[in-house]
Amino acid sequence: MQPLNLCAGNFLSDPQRRRIFASGKVLKSNFSRRYESEFALELAGSELEKIVARSLRQVPPAHAPVLAWPVVCGSAVAERTRALDFIDGVLRVAVSDAGWKKELQALAPRYLASVNRYTAEPVRKVEFIIMRPETAENTR
Question: Model pTM greater than 0.85?
Answer without folding.
Answer: no
